Amino acid sequence: MMMNKNIYFLGIGGIGMSALARYFHKKGCAVAGYDKTPSPLTKKLEEEGILIHYEDKPELIPHEVELVILTPAIPSDSRELNYLKEKEVKIIKRAEVLGEISRHCKSVAVAGSHGKTTVTSLISHILHHAQKPMSAFIGGIAKNINSNVIIGDENDEVVVMEADEFDRSFLQLTPYISIVTSIDADHLDIYGDEDSVVEAFNQFVDKTAKDGVVICNHKLPIVTDRKKLTYGFEDADVMARNVRVEDGMTKFEVVTTEGLELGEYEMQLFGEHNIMNAMAAIIACLQLNIDLKVVREGLTLFQGVARRFDIRVRNERVCYIDDYAHHPEEIKATLKAVRSIFPEKKLTLVFQPHLFSRTHDFMDEFAESLSLADQLLLMEIYPAREKPMPGVTSSVLLEKVRCDEKRICQKDELLDVIKDIQPELLVTMGAGDIDRFVPQIETLLK
Length: 446
What we know:
It contains 15 helices and 21 strands.
């Protein structure tokens, strides 16, 4: 399966692409790649011996490329992409590779508009803790292993992977266990409307093995003839109750609709959304016959994912949290969790919108979610793969936000503004390049 090949990654610096690059590099393939800009991820790959360049120049491509793995983020006018097409080198998308890997052992595929990275990381961590032979591909850096990939061997019993709905990529997978955490209107540039998003998620669960299981939030419109287990706080097959925060940990009990008590759990994550994430992971691990005691231990030891409610500084003077939230529902869930832990503190939010199309589609919803902050520093829209759209700017969004203290903040002034404000509770959010500022902000606040 693609082993002993010379593999070239177009867009190697992406979180999903870099995990695959690491996987094939460890398996003995010759791996190289291109990315638009250097990052901590690409630096790590280079340190591991993977050759990377940052100019879109065909002459920099290694001559002996046998297979190209492509991310959807690469534009169609890429010089390297078109050169490789002319050379008739085999080009496949990242999702196709994951699909191929998923067919070689029991696979757990985690999908959802949000929550999928935390659930993927948590299941991977618990299985790893249980010493289950497995591999995992994670859409973030899991703190316990400080990596986005767990690389097993030919004895793998399970592979856990994040199932990305962008570009309908997750329809390439054939899971034994499929999980859907949430379905929100997103990527409307791909899907057109919310009904098409819902339809795609139902197509995804239909890919589940006949003897497999579908696990989903009980509120979702998932219809399937596969075995289905739902989770929630009420009216679900598996439910959380007696939720509280004690001794700096979230604690809750889990029961089934038949009245079976699965005991009490505690974790280092906060917020109702993370209790839901934990329940999805608990159910999946029990379906894989992991001992309940081991599941409980694993959940307690789980340190979370970088950029998912990531507490970077916490002392008597200031608390700083960084988060990847880039959809209105994610912003709302995270800020509500922050409020529940620090109800008396003034909440300063730095937010970088991601994509002109998403900002356009959810302008009012973004304004409503961002209004939960006491003070807003709004950065310019991060374009990623898109060109600007007329009338879609951060200034237009800012006008709609109901915040007493709000302003546009440019990248080159961000650190100075934070220094002047001296926030007592700071949250940075976004899926663009705001993460480049996190270490500097952390140093500044410490």
